[in-house]
Design the sequence.
């Protein structure tokens, strides 16, 4: 059962209205639990609107349809989804590039067989919230929206244009295994290698 956790401040009604607006707007968010990510931008403090579900964690992956490294990682991301979705892990891909509109994203998911939801972020709400710098970059958040891991999916890419035959460390996989077994995440942050997320020109 999903529920709202709000503060007792005067912003309570505003936050509730934001959630109701998003849920009634007709826009698909993949699941209710992903709504809170869009709501948190209305509150820069520790207390925000959280919608909790049964998912032990949500994987947010910043991608770019035109980024070659994002394209190369689609097969690995699909495999991770296949492995962890049955355990309740949710996946959501975010596209910060202004050229990645819903139609482009749907086509990208079809061509590269990505089985989870993709959403544009042209105003960089989530880019700013999670301080994402490149695509692909992965973020794992728990039910309360706390970042448990952020960085590279694995160590396949050493630098731009340089990659190993096979990765030797599977950072995202290791983080998800730790979440599911209740163990601490030993490597909670790594540097992702990928295409730089361009800053918005018009703020």
Sequence:
């Amino acid at each position: 059962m999903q529920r709202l956790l709000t503060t007792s401040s005067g912003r309570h009604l505003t936050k509730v209205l934001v959630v109701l607006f998003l849920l009634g707007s007709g826009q698909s968010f993949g699941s209710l639990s992903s709504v809170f990510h869009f709501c948190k931008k209305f509150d820069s403090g520790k207390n925000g609107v959280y919608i909790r579900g049964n998912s032990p964690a949500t994987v947010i992956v910043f991608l770019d349809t035109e980024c070659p490294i994002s394209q190369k990682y689609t097969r690995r991301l699909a495999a991770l989804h296949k492995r962890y979705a049955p355990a309740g892990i949710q996946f959501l891909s975010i596209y910060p590039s202004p050229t990645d509109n819903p139609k482009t994203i749907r086509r990208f998911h079809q061509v590269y067989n990505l089985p989870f939801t993709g959403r544009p972020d042209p105003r960089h709400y989530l880019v700013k919230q999670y301080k994402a710098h490149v695509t692909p970059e992965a973020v794992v958040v728990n039910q309360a929206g706390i970042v448990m891991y952020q960085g590279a999916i694995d160590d396949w890419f050493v630098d731009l244009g340089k990659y190993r035959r096979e990765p030797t460390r599977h950072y995202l996989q290791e983080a998800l295994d730790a979440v599911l077994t209740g163990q601490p995440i030993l490597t909670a942050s790594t540097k992702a290698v990928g295409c730089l997320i361009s800053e918005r020109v018009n703020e």
Q: What stands out?
A: Residues 3-52 form one domain. The CA atoms of residues 178 and 184 lie 6 Å apart. The chain has two domains: 3-52, 58-196.
